[in-house]
Amino acid sequence: MLKLTKKADYGLMALKYLAEHPETPALSAKDVADAYGIPAQLLAKILQRLTKTGLLRSHAGMNGGYELARDARQISAYEVIHAIDGPFFITSCTKGAKGCDLTPSCTIKEPLARVNDTIAGVLKSISIQDLAEHVQPSGRPREAQGLVALTL
Amino acid sequence: MLKLTKKADYGLMALKYLAEHPETPALSAKDVADAYGIPAQLLAKILQRLTKTGLLRSHAGMNGGYELARDARQISAYEVIHAIDGPFFITSCTKGAKGCDLTPSCTIKEPLARVNDTIAGVLKSISIQDLAEHVQPSGRPREAQGLVALTL
DNA sequence: TGAATCTCGGACAGAAACGGTCGTATACTT
DNA sequence: AAGTATACGACCGTTTCTGTCCGAGATTCA
Ligand code: SF4
Ligand code: SF4
Predict the structure, then answer these.
(1) Cα-based distances in Å from A34 to A26, A40, A81, A97, B107
(2) Which residues of B touch A152 (CB under 8 A)?
(3) Residues 95-134 of B with CB under 7 A from strand C
(4) Atom of ligand 1 at shortest distance to CA of A101?
């Protein structure tokens, strides 16, 4: 529950990897998969989907591969997750989906929808760049880099 | 992914229901289950687990049932979720668990751990009471009731 | 031209998590 | 004693997740 899919996880890793190698023209799925221990074929399909949603640009053929379509600073974790795992809900009922059987009688779906938005906001405020800058966490609680409004 | 379990969902509904009926000495699992359309047997087990973790007090026998162990204001959504679905991770690796195969080579687990904490913080800041006060959302974006620090 | 490399896309299978049911034992009230 | 309600574990069908396989198209290079 409330757990990130491994695909999304892999997707974030790959994007971060690409962000860290801006010089290279393109990196193949296999390159990235080998860099970590990710199953190559699986990563391939993930990158394909990221391409289809416009987060990556692909290039077939020899020395082909993928590159970021935008600056790493302009790609949010939310977009990645959304691209890979589809629309983001905390519950089974949220807007867009058909909802669970007891959507009418349920009295907490509305407050939960706000929680959903809040969490989505957190994810949206995180960019690939943020992941790439692995500031050595020297234990010191740094300045908060952002504040997320929690309306409920 | 990142979706609340239905069990947790039911648990929150039940807790909220109990919070809304502070006068009654105890409400049986069946009462709550009927109030919404929740499968009674399933809700029963959920409430049992909440009892075992100390969020509820149970009372067997006729006219028995459950009651909140603490004030609704003192019970966070996080506790409920944690009690029902176990420890809260966003990823498969987080502290406590054995982690996934590529925990060593993974470079994003540390930033993700912070995201994890952030979201957990959001959940912790929400009490059952907050759910019960279903302030008619008149569209007007009320004052933010809290801010969550987003450190990465 | 043709071989090598790489993306694309769907099908598919094994594994795990989820949602829900059942049966039985136990505790409390009247 | 009878009735009501919690307690607990086993079980099972469904869905979701993870990962693999395979065939088809694109591009580069010799
Ligand atoms: S309707 Fe209520 S119960 Fe059904 S999914 Fe939405 S929140 Fe959970
Ligand atoms: S280690 Fe990296 S890949 Fe494995 S679960 Fe944690 S974050 Fe995801």
Answers:
(1) 15, 7, 22, 37, 14
(2) 126, 130, 145
(3) none
(4) 4
CA-to-CA separations, A133 to A16, A130, B102, B105, B120, in angstroms, rounded: 9, 5, 20, 16, 23
β-sheet bridge partners, residue B66: B27, B58
Closest residue to C29 (CA, C1′): B62
Domain boundaries, chain B: 6-132
**CATH of region A6-132:** 1.10.10.10
User: How far is A85 from B2, CA to CA, in rounded Å?
Assistant: 10
> Angle CA(A94)–CA(A123)–CA(A19) in degrees, nearest 5?
135
CA of A65: nucleotide with nearest C1': C6
Is the distance from the beta carbon of residue A40 to the nearest atom of ligand 1 less than 6 Å?
A: no
Please say if the pLDDT value at position A1 is more than 60: yes
pTM of the entire structure?
0.90
Decide: CB of A83 under 7 A of nucleic strand C: no
What local confidence, expressed as pLDDT, does residue B97 receive? 54
Which residues pair with residue B59 across a beta bridge?
A: B65
Phi then psi dihedrals of residue B96, to 5 deg: 100, -55
pLDDT in tens, chain B (152 residues): 899 999 999 999 999 999 999 989 999 999 999 999 999 999 999 999 999 999 999 999 999 999 999 999 999 999 999 999 999 999 988 755 567 888 889 999 999 999 999 999 999 999 999 999 865 444 333 334 455 555 55
